[in-house]
């Protein structure tokens, strides 16, 4: 039986992007519980449907805005809740809210004093473009009500896929190629159980590579009307998703992107920042902080979770040595090629998990961290506290785990710089750059 809808007032946005409220509904079993509600903005009175009920909290989604916020705007897409919930929020307000959300995480999780000057003056660097910035996107597939194959996203926090039009967060050239892939899928009468996803990525030149991932091992000789390569589409490939076996390949499986006169090569599966404009601003800030707190002429840089080397290789001219560590085989393959093609003589790579290559960390090193959302491994934290490298540059896509790690490292380190970067406009995500100096 469907749960009765409740009404409440949203007090703030919290990490993850939900609106926070405390239920005031006498007679309800949830009276007094905190509620985390999608599509609710601070100050709004809303009606919401419960989607999750726990002993100490509930989650829900707004079904009706009774009293809207003056900061609410009309979203560009029907499926905005799946990919970019902040489409309903004015852009300036989005950036202000992200600063408040991160400030709260640093105080609550990181145990950083609320009146800490860097935290009080925390700023966010945001791109001008709110839409059309993603240089990589992954679409699933689902049939619409008429049985026609469409792109799809999963409903937020659900396992149900909803048919969508190409997402406005993606660069135009990506969606141009996406439409060609959809035509190919329809022409060859692929069923939904045949298809896993398509991954499409581009570079600053507007060049695109794409991969179609299948759940069933189909024979490409029985397919026709493949997307044609041109000045935009440089490579199209079909893979069996279980083991990423290439069933069909045409053209490039890589792209190049130039950063600070360093030409970086990367592939479909390589980690590479999806918003290059704002990433390069973050890289510029890293250079500024290295100039301020490190002797660059003697810098021995250890780049953990390095990907293809997008952070450390453009900095290598001013380093004594650079060591890249990543466990993604494709990324490390391209990192080696990037070192060779750019004639970088002072760099080397290790294909392993960061926490399994701890011997490269020593007191004379400068460490760059750009970990996945889980943050840094506890064994790596212990090694950093034991060896105490002079400087740690920590770029994070998850401020909650970064705040946790900073709290653990505060035994031996002082935070010298904090700055936010809005890599992902219209979504709840934000990148945080913190510089930690040995006490």
Description:
With 439 residues, the chain is of the alpha/beta class. The chain folds into three domains: 67 residues, OB fold (Dihydrolipoamide Acetyltransferase, E2P); 199 residues, Rossmann fold; 121 residues, OB fold (Dihydrolipoamide Acetyltransferase, E2P), CATH 2.40.50.1070. Helix content is 21%, strand content 32%. It is built from eight helices and 23 strands. The strands form four sheets. The protein has an eight-stranded mixed sheet with strand order 7-22-23-21-20-17-18-19, with helices on both faces. Strands 10-9-8-11-12-13-14 form a seven-stranded mixed sheet, covered by helices on one side. Strand 15 and strand 16 form a beta hairpin. Helix 2 packs parallel to helix 8. The radius of gyration is 23 Å and the shape is globular. The model has no long low-confidence stretch (mean pLDDT 93).
**Major sheet details:** 8 strands, mixed
Strand residue content: 25-35%
Q: Low-confidence runs (pLDDT<50, min 5 residues)?
A: none
Question: How many domain modules?
Answer: 3
Based on the coordinates given, report the CATH architecture of the largest domain.
Answer: 3-Layer(aba) Sandwich
Write the layout of secondary structure elements.
Blueprint: E1 6-9, E2 12-13, E3 19-22, E4 34-38, E5 45-53, E6 58-67, H1 80-83, H2 91-108, H3 117-120, E7 124-125, E8 136-143, E9 149-154, E10 161-164, H4 172-187, E11 195-202, E12 208-214, E13 233-240, E14 245-251, E15 254-259, E16 262-267, H5 276-293, E17 300-304, E18 321-326, H6 329-341, E19 347-351, E20 366-369, H7 378-387, E21 391-396, H8 399-409, E22 413-421, E23 431-438
Parallel strand pairs: 4-6, 7-22, 12-13, 17-18, 17-20, 18-19, 20-21
Antiparallel strand pairs: 1-5, 2-3, 3-4, 5-6, 8-9, 8-11, 9-10, 11-12, 13-14, 15-16, 21-23, 22-23
């Amino acid at each position: 039986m469907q749960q009765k809808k409740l009404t409440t007032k949203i007090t703030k946005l919290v990490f993850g992007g939900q609106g926070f409220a405390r239920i005031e509904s006498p007679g309800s079993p949830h009276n007094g519980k905190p509620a985390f509600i999608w599509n609710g903005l601070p100050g709004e009175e809303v009606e919401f449907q419960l989607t999750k009920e726990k002993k100490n909290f509930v989650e829900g989604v707004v079904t009706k805005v009774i009293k809207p916020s003056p900061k609410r705007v009309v979203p560009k897409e029907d499926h905005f809740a799946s990919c970019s919930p902040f489409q309903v929020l004015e852009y300036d307000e989005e950036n202000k809210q992200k600063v408040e959300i991160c400030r709260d995480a640093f105080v609550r999780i990181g145990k950083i004093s609320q009146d800490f000057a860097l935290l009080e003056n925390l700023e966010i660097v945001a791109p001008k473009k709110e839409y059309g910035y993603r240089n990589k996107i992954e679409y699933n597939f689902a049939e619409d009500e008429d049985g026609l194959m469409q792109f799809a996203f999963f409903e937020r926090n659900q396992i149900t896929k909803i048919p969508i039009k190409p997402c406005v967060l993606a660069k135009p050239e990506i969606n141009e190629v996406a439409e060609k892939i959809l035509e190919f899928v329809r022409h060859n009468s692929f069923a939904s159980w045949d298809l896993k996803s398509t991954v499409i990525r581009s570079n600053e030149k507007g060049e695109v590579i794409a991969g179609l991932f299948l759940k069933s091992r189909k024979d490409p000789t029985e397919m026709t009307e493949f997307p044609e390569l041109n000045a935009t589409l440089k490579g199209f490939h079909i893979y069996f998703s279980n083991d990423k076996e290439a069933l069909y390949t045409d053209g490039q499986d890589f792209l190049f992107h130039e950063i600070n006169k360093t030409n970086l090569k990367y592939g479909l599966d390589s980690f590479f920042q999806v918003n290059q404009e704002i990433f390069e601003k973050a890289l510029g800030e890293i250079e500024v902080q290295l100039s301020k707190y490190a002797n660059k002429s003697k810098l021995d840089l250890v780049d953990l979770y390095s990907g293809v080397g997008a952070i450390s290789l453009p900095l290598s001219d001013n380093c004594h040595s650079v060591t890249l560590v990543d466990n993604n085989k494709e990324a490390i393959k391209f990192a080696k090629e990037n070192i060779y093609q750019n004639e970088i003589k002072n760099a080397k790579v290790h294909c392993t998990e960061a926490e399994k290559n701890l011997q490269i960390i020593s007191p004379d090193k400068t460490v760059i961290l750009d970990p996945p959302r889980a943050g840094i491994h506890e064994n790596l934290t212990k090694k950093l506290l034991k060896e105490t490298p002079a400087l740690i540059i920590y770029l994070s896509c998850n401020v909650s785990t970064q705040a946790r790690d900073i709290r653990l490292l505060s035994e031996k380190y002082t935070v010298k710089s904090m700055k936010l970067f809005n890599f992902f406009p219209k979504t709840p995500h934000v990148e945080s750059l913190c510089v930690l100096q040995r006490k």
